[in-house]
Amino acid sequence: MKTFVIANWKMNPSSSAKAEFLFNSIKDGLENIEKLGKKTEIVICPPFPYLSIISNIYNPCLPSPEAKATGGQVKSNIKLGAQNCFWEDPPAGGGSFTGEISLLMLKDLGCKYVIIGHSERRMFLNETDRIINKKIRAVLAKRIEPILCVGENRKDKEQGKTQTVLRKQIENGLKRISKSDVKKIIFAYEPLWAIGSGRPCSPDEAQVIRLFFKKVISQKYFRSIADEINILYGGSVDSSNAKSFIEEAGFQGVLVGGSSLKPKEFIELVKNI
Ligand code: 13P
Q1: Residue located nearest, by CA, to atom 1 of ligand 1
Q2: What are the structural domains of the chain?
């Protein structure tokens, strides 16, 4: 199985020049990591306006002119992802969608992944499980890989409702998704109380939740399908703790916010896993 390190830049940095600098610093640093094998996939998810800038300077997911000539793909561990998408394709989808970004646009820029249902979108933009499910199905239909984020807030945790909340988010997010498609979804457990707090979930506690994800997926599909699913941890991941979520807690990778905006720290994080 692959190990994923997914960088969610959220609404950062504040200018395209800074985004270009950040991306180039990460790319150059990663190129120097010798042990970065084929099995580590680094996914950079910048804000929408910077996707085309990064795609133009690097084009990590699109075939290069040379690769196109031979029908191959660029060989790189760095891939591009988006932080959100809309579920319709204009104009055939029937309607106009001011301010939204379609999956065809993301695909055209070389995005291989899309983050769906991040807690900040659920919280501040009222994204419901129903909307998230529509997006997941649309992403799968376009052969892009969705990263489905779920997580409980502090109150849920204190009231002992973590598993109830997670089960609901997972089951609702997976409505009308086939056995073959569910395997293409990357799940991310991001407890809200750990995001940006500097206090991550302990690997032991995270491991219990990872096994709970498998149980919910086994019950909805099959055990064999649950065994193939990639589950990531996110919430205050840095270079000192990333490895513990992979080696001790058994996750297939990490979803990184703040630490992905500091090139040295991010490169160190990748080196340490
Ligand atoms: P932090 O790594 O800043 O806690 O953010 C996690 C996150 O929300 C990634 O999607």
Answers
A1: 257
A2: 3-88+99-272 (3.20.20.70)
